[in-house]
Design brief:
4-stranded antiparallel beta sheet, 3 helices, alpha+beta, 40% helix, 2 domains
């Protein structure tokens, strides 16, 4: 024979079990957030971004991408531009220069742009000279 006390006790046990599992779920989620390894800031996979973006600037320098077209790299070097070392902008690579594939030459070979730098003060002087010539 089932007594009223047994029915009430069974209901309470079921509620406690249900509540206990909910607490366990919440605790598990909180632990997962705390225990999660800290990730560096990132952009979600597949989101649009510029192929020529640089996430870390170099203090005191202006950065510029220079296409490897007939004499452009040489001209840049003659005008005090230097190649950027990948470690300077946070790239972990064995390459000695930062480069990106940006197209194709007329002969179909790969066209690369190289990241170069110039002292900010020299860049600003060059910009002032350029605007004075245009006026």
């Amino acid at each position: 024979m089932v007594t009223r006390k047994k029915v009430v006790a069974t209901k309470v046990e079921k509620e406690v079990d249900a509540l206990g599992s909910k607490i366990a779920e919440v605790t598990e989620v909180v632990r997962a957030e705390v225990d999660r390894p800290q990730r560096k800031s990132r952009q979600p996979f597949g989101s649009p971004r510029s192929k020529l973006s640089v996430s870390r600037l170099i203090p005191g320098y202006h950065l510029h991408w220079v296409n490897d077209l007939a004499g452009r790299i040489h001209d840049a070097e003659d005008n005090d531009y230097e190649f950027v070392n990948p470690k300077e902008v946070g790239f972990d690579t064995k390459e000695s220069k930062v480069k990106r594939l940006v197209g194709a030459n007329e002969d179909g070979s790969a066209l690369y742009a190289y990241l170069m730098k110039i002292r900010q003060e020299w860049y600003e002087e060059d910009q002032e000279r350029g605007s004075a010539l245009q006026n």
